[in-house]
Prior knowledge:
Layout: H1 21-28, E1 32-36, E2 39-42, H2 44-63, E3 67-68, E4 74-76, H3 77-82, E5 94-97, E6 103-106, H4 111-121, E7 130-139, E8 154-164, H5 167-187, E9 193-196, E10 206-213, E11 219-224, E12 230-231, E13 246-261, H6 263-268, E14 271-273, E15 279-281, E16 283-290, H7 291-301, E17 303-304, E18 307-308, E19 319-323, H8 328-343, E20 348-351, H9 358-368, E21 372-376, H10 378-383, E22 386-390, E23 396-399, H11 401-410
Parallel strand pairs: 3-7, 19-20, 19-21
Antiparallel strand pairs: 1-2, 4-6, 5-6, 7-8, 8-16, 9-10, 10-13, 11-12, 11-13, 13-16, 14-15, 17-18, 21-22, 22-23
Helix pairs in contact: 1-7, 2-5, 2-7
Amino acid sequence: MKYSKLFAKTLRRAPKGAEAISHQLLAKAGFIDQLAAGIYSFLPLGWRVHRKIENIIREEMNAIGGQEVFLPTLQPKPLWEETDRWEHMEPPLFKLKDRHEKGLALGPTHEEVMTDLARRFISSYKDLPLYLYQIQNKFRNEMRSTGGLLRVREFVMKDLYSFHADEKDLDNYYQKVVEAYKKIFKRCGFVTKIVEASSGTIGGDVSHEFMMLCPTGEDRVFNCTKCIFATSKEKPKKCPKCGGKVEESRAIENGHVFKLGIKYSEKMGAYFLDKEGKKKPIWMGCYGIGIGRLMATLVEAHHDEKGIIWPESVSPFDAHLIDIPNEKRASTEAGKIYEALKKKGIEVLWDDRDDISAGVKFAVADLIGIPVRLIISEKLAKSGKIEYKRRDKEKTQNLTLGQVVKKLTHG
């Protein structure tokens, strides 16, 4: 992609009222644009990151047997009345009526829709277990939508639902999902604390949140200073696992998993026949990750005073190519390098503008945060070399095109 053709450019200053560092940097760097409170457009740079996070999640969900579906956003009122959540969901549902005066909700979650599918398609123990997930828009009627992508009213979420014949099978799969979530967050470039949590209006007897400890986080957790124990409930006198000291920390939630049990299947009549022909309720679990929130958390975890520092796994491009303005040979050579890298399957953002200074190009590169910066000047072009620099390092290297390709394709 040539920067001169890229839709949306960097801003000189963050939008008014942007307090979270992720909100400031994602807006300044041209990744997102705010349409209204808690409602954001993902611009090309932002959508590239979003899609890469989605693909990491897809790979890990598929690895534990998940089958991807895509369910409706509009959900009929009678489904929500079956579970008594039409009037008691928190935050309240976005409600509307169609031209036939039928009540509908914009789905903040999909327990009702998934359970309805289960009761219509699952009839026997032979149909179990079953794991269905989707990556889809959700709508939350938040009273206070602040913090950029950390608290929004419209967002994309991965939600996985599992269906089981008994509690033991649910427990086993729940642990598989926990391990898959650890892999997802590690691949995205940070480690989370798994905390015991309240199930809220989703329900179920057991739930856990995945928290990244962060001074700017709006959630509060109590974590042991010696072992992995953490909770968002009451602070213990001391750690129940090792007896160590427990301290309060700020954190950002990036995932939530629930053992729903038979709450929804009993209310909505989702039963199956076991091996003896006995009618039993389906055991269920649900597991969510907000993708925009995860993207914002990445920025909270990976930035400096100059801008974002994307992990390679989710960066919008593999390399940011810069030629020194008004140096004809540098521009010509940069064009050749750009095409050569593309042919090798390397994703490159080339700042091809010739009406700004080199300093501005470097500042833009630091703000956008692509992990590798490639610089070509007249002098370097003559020597057949390219300056190679990691975004998170000060050291530079002068390398041949072949060496650059090797680094970008093999690490």
